[in-house]
Amino acid sequence: MLSFRASIFIRTGLKNRGLATVSDAQAPSFRIPLIDFSRFRNATAASEKKEVALEVVSAFKESGFIYLSGHGIPALTIQNAFAKSAEFFRMPTDVKDKLAWEDPRSNRGYVKIGRERVTQSTDAAEIAALREKAPDFKETMEIGRDWDSAWKNQWPAEADAPEFKQTMLGFFQQCHELHVHVMRSIAIGLELEESFFDEKIQEQCHNLRLLSYPPIKRALLDNEGQARAGAHSDYGTLTLLFQDSVGGLEAKNPHTGVFIPATPIPGTIVVNVGDLLARWSNDVLRSTLHRVVAPAAKPLNAQEAITPARQSIAFFCNPNFTAEIACLPNCGKEVKYPPINTEAYIVGRLAATYS
Questions:
Q1: Under a CB-based contact definition with an 8 Å cutoff, are residues 328 and 250 in contact?
Q2: Long-range contacts: 171-176, Cβ < 8 Å, 24+?
Q3: Does residue 7 form part of some domain?
Q4: CATH number at residue 229
Q5: How many CB atoms within 10 Å of residue 125?
Q6: How far is CA 4 from the centre of its chain?
Q7: pLDDT tens-digit profile of 144-173?
Q8: What's the structural domain count of the chain?
Q9: Which phi-psi region, left, alpha or beta, contains residue 225 (left: φ > 0; alpha: ψ -120 to 50)?
Q10: Contact 347, 300 (CB under 8 A)
């Protein structure tokens, strides 16, 4: 079993890939720590919580990414969510298309391959051009809180996807509860009251995203700018990412510009800081660019190869849509950003991202 002190250290002078921008002697290591979060969840003393909280905040300051073990979501629960996700994407296209994503405020429903193009750009015309040239080769299903009176989830019929709704609602709730605990650790690590964020995230304005990356001929991914999911940062507070064993997630070393694999570690969740939390913390916590690339392809013949399928599940954690995001206490004397409303920010980013 891996210790909580285990970490992934990767040198960034990848000369064989032509990616290095500095020499090996100059390149800082890119570190994604592995943190056993059960020590925070099961702590009996404030000092025990503080120790873990400082590890979490330190990692989010340096790389913006952690691997979380001991997170409290049972392995069987995660396996079942993956199984139901796979069943959903195996449904006929015409059945999935009836559940199509329609509105950035709702942010619910099925997104077919090529409709989304994640990028750091906020210019709608530029994003549209990127989408036309090199769309993200994936399909997704977006799920929000189910009790929302204005914006409804788009559930498949029970006969088409047995137990899908029940499974995803339960999974959504467990992810929210983990989010609350991680945000409490961040509060402690920033010298705030442990409950500081509780009333700012309890409305559960989150997005559970199921992702399917179908097999694709390698040549189709060789176009300029093409990827399974382009380089981007996330929008909200945190992202909880559940990976399969295929891999493909890469985080960008902010010191060198080199993308480094976030190799799947069984039993862990990858957690990264989103843009709103970075803004909230006055950039004390780092929102790091990341992307999804295709793993090694299997040869079909002398001229062509095909990539394996990949599954992942992302839980995009957001503050309450009514929350004002303004510089937190203890996060610098010079405020970098004016206050902003959560809903205005999130919906604006989503509106530009989709066609």
A1: no
A2: 171/77, 171/81, 171/208, 171/313, 172/143, 172/145, 172/146, 172/204, 172/206, 172/208, 172/315, 174/72, 174/73, 174/77, 175/73, 175/206, 175/208, 175/240, 175/315, 175/317, 176/204, 176/206, 176/317
A3: no
A4: 2.60.120.330
A5: 9
A6: 22
A7: 999 998 899 999 999 999 999 999 999 999
A8: 1
A9: left
A10: no
Asked, for residue 15, whether it belongs to a domain, the answer is no
Candidate from 7-11, 36-40, 319-323 with smallest mean pLDDT: 7-11
Render pLDDT for 53-104 as a digit per residue (tens, 0 to 9): 999 999 999 999 999 999 999 999 999 999 999 999 999 999 999 999 988 8
**Gap between the Cα atoms of 34 and 29, Å rounded:** 15
Domain membership of residue 67 (yes or no) is yes
> Of the segments 93-102, 245-254, 293-302, which one has the largest average pLDDT value?
93-102
The amino acid sitting at 36 is: D
Q: What's the CA angle centered on 12, arms 267 and 16, to 5 degrees? A: 105
> Does residue 228 belong to any structural domain of this protein?
yes
Owning domain of residue 310: 32-353
Question: Using CA atoms, how far apart are residues 79 and 84, in angstroms rounded to an integer?
Answer: 9
What is the DSSP secondary-structure string of 72-121? S--HHHHHHHHHHHHHHHTS-HHHHHTTB---TTT--EEE-TTSB---S-
Q: Report in angstroms the alpha-carbon separations of 36 from 15, 72, 148, 268.
A: 33, 10, 34, 9
What is the per-residue burial (b if ≥16 Cβ within 10 Å, else e) of 34-52? bbbbeebbeeeeeeebbeb
The total number of residues written for the chain in this structure: 355
Amino acid identity, position 105: R
What phi and psi values does residue 213 have, to the nearest 5 degrees?
-110, 100
Cross-strand partners of 198: none
Q: pTM value? A: 0.86
Between helix 124-133 and helix 342-353 the angle, nearest 10°, is 40
Judge contact between 43 and 61, C-beta under 8 A. no
